[in-house]
Design brief:
The protein is α/β, with parallel strands linked by helices. Helices cover 34% and strands 34% of the residues. The strands form 3 sheets. The protein has a 7-stranded mixed sheet, with helices on both faces. A 4-stranded antiparallel sheet has the order 2-3-1-4. A 3-stranded mixed sheet has the order 5-6-7. Helix 4 packs parallel to helix 5 and helix 8 packs parallel to helix 9. The chain is globular, with a radius of gyration of 19 Å.
Length: 297
């Protein structure tokens, strides 16, 4: 029996993409891409038919319309249809193009032949069913924060933890800038598979990028020594639960990069960080998204 996927297409005002990405991610959508056409953005995403009913999609459409209303964007047009499983991967991949991020990264789709001469640090990614192609602003903010960290020579050779690794894009970026080792964990087995595959794509050794299913509690039980840095790009509700556990894998100079946080969620996250002896060293904002750069107090 052939499996099918819902292909969801959203035609929206440019500027509304990141709110839409956040809504789709929280809904469980996979393989999100966007294509800008003049003043509009065409966003495509996918959900397995077996896990999603048409009523669920109607609810998603309503939430997208409400989000646009709250954010003062025009109402997006939403439509969906079924496609065969063998078609869904190639359908969204053909719309995803190489992307420059920060001062030095180039995110490159795995199905493209990379250029022979590069002035940027190449990260090859095939996200599979995991989150993290570099399209979302939160991923960009995290990569830029990591890039800034590695301007300090003392950061090179460090051991890091990637909590909720998704496609492994942040882990790979850190290793290519000079990290010694990254422990990457995610509760989603599809993310573990994607990170493993992307490690191979980027010619990284399995002793450099150590991938395991789990979360920060798994690392606190298995690591023999604390890590030098932590990065985490997931939803704020999950970050709230993780902050009290971060000290278990930290030492007195451990730093952190946290994103997936909306502007209105900043006070809550900042208060919880302070309660657990973390200082917000910098807060980067882009549109409605924030990235915390933190250190131990």
């Amino acid at each position: 029996m052939t499996n099918h996927w819902w292909e969801i297409e959203i035609l929206a005002e440019i500027g509304a993409e990141d709110t839409i990405f956040w809504r789709l991610e929280s809904f469980g959508c996979q393989g999100m891409v966007t294509e800008n056409k003049q003043s509009t953005a065409l966003i495509r995403t996918y959900l397995p038919e077996a896990e999603t009913q048409s009523l669920d999609l109607s609810a998603l459409s309503l939430w997208l319309r409400q989000d646009a209303l709250i954010s003062n964007f025009s109402t997006p047009k939403v439509r969906w249809h079924l496609i065969a499983e063998e078609d869904w991967g190639s359908t969204w991949k053909k719309h995803w193009q190489p992307q420059e991020i920060g001062d030095g990264f180039l995110i490159y789709p795995a199905w493209y032949t990379p250029p022979l001469e590069l002035e940027r640090t190449l990260i090859r990614i095939d996200p599979g069913l995991a989150f993290g192609t570099g399209v979302h602003l939160t991923t960009q903010l995290c990569l830029e924060a990591i890039e800034m960290r590695f301007l300090d020579e003392k950061t090179k050779g460090s051991t890091l933890a990637d909590i909720g690794c998704g496609s492994g894009i942040l882990s790979i970026g850190a290793l290519k800038l000079g990290a010694k080792k990254v422990y990457a964990v995610d509760t989603d087995p599809l993310a573990i598979r994607a990170t493993h595959d992307n490690r191979i794509l980027n010619d990284l050794d399995e002793q450099q990028l150590i991938v395991a299913q789990g979360s920060i509690s798994y690392l606190s039980e298995t690591l023999s020594t604390p890590v030098d840095g932590i990065f985490c790009n997931i939803l704020a509700d999950l970050i709230v639960d993780l902050i009290p556990q971060m000290s278990a894998i930290s030492h007195e100079t451990t730093w952190g990069v946290l994103s997936g946080i909306l502007l209105e969620q900043v006070p809550l996250i900042a208060d919880i960080l302070e309660e657990h002896d973390w200082i917000v060293a910098a807060l980067w904002k882009r549109k409605e998204w924030c990235c915390f750069n933190i250190r131990r107090s």
